[in-house]
């Protein structure tokens, strides 16, 4: 049986292709939200103060990761108007030139830095000193919702699993692939690492990262007091490196007990190659511009 004829293309329609990151960059300046089917809970002061099956993922303008907004009636705590702290002087945000021509806000930017109109509110657990910040955006799509400061709460759960740092972006992901490329990391002529056994971690909108076997790290590493967390990878331990006669602080990190998405880089070491010379198959790479540059 022959296939049905295909209608000719409508040549009056603009069929020009678009670069997806350009589309994402344009949307960065808008208030964006998306319903989630997950049951979302949060604790504060040892009590469950949020329990909802009607949460919204919300990206405020210039924010690159989402937070949660929940219906007013699903918050089991006192909600009252709040006066936010005065804004800091000077520019705010970080450049991600592959994504945006204006500075973007990552999770390190305080919750009360925003470009959305609305009302700041406080969430207080009755009979305790436990408080958290919230915001009611002036937008019809978020009527009767409160955007919550993720970091102010003790813990967050999606269904029965705890999440950290921020909710996952349904339009972002990480992929890990083994590579036999010859990867070298150098500084001032000194080799810090040299391997053909790296694992490349690809994360939406960010430069690829090279995770290296510990055995292929040449520079002595010393643990630092710095810790960080990633919603996808887990908690990271940071290291300083001894390079020649100087110490380079917080230049590398490792996930000793990663979350499931990052299990393939467990105990591997990654470097802030935006501060180093990254050489791939003998060709030096241009240093990426990231919030860590």
Automatic annotation (TrEMBL):
Organism: Arthrobacter agilis
Record-linked PANTHER family: BLR5716 PROTEIN, DUF427 DOMAIN PROTEIN (AFU_ORTHOLOGUE AFUA_3G02220)
Protein name (database record): DUF427 domain-containing protein
Cited InterPro entries: DUF427 (IPR007361), DUF427_sf (IPR038694)
Pfam families: NTP_transf_9
Domain of life of the native organism: Bacteria
DUF427 domain location: 183-273
Lineage per the UniProt record: Bacteria, Bacillati, Actinomycetota, Actinomycetes, Micrococcales
């Amino acid at each position: 049986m022959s296939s049905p004829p295909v209608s000719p293309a409508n040549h009056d329609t603009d069929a020009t292709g678009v670069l997806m990151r350009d589309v994402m960059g344009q949307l960065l300046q808008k208030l964006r939200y998306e319903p989630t089917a997950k049951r979302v809970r949060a604790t504060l002061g040892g009590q469950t103060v949020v329990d909802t099956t009607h949460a919204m993922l919300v990206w405020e303008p210039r924010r690159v990761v989402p937070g949660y907004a929940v219906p007013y009636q699903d918050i089991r705590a006192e909600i009252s108007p709040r006066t936010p702290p005065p804004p800091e002087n000077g520019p705010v945000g970080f450049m991600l030139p592959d994504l945006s021509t204006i500075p973007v806000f990552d999770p390190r930017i305080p919750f009360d830095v925003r470009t959305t109109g609305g009302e700041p509110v406080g969430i207080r657990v009755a009979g305790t000193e436990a408080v958290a910040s919230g915001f009611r955006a002036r937008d019809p799509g978020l009527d009767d919702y409160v955007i919550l400061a993720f970091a102010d709460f003790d813990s967050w759960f999606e269904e029965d699993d705890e999440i950290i740092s921020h909710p996952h972006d349904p339009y972002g992901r990480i992929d890990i692939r083994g590579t036999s490329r010859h990867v070298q990391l150098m500084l001032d002529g000194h080799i810090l690492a040299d391997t053909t056994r790296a694992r490349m971690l690809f994360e939406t909108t960010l430069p690829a990262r090279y995770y290296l076997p510990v055995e292929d790290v040449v520079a002595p590493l010393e643990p630092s007091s710095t810790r960080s967390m990633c919603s996808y990878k887990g908690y990271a331990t940071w290291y300083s490196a001894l390079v020649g006669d100087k110490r380079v602080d917080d230049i590398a990190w490792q996930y000793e007990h990663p979350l499931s998405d990052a299990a393939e880089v467990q105990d591997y070491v990654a470097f802030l190659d935006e501060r180093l010379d990254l050489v791939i198959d003998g060709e030096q790479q241009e240093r990426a511009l990231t919030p860590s540059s």
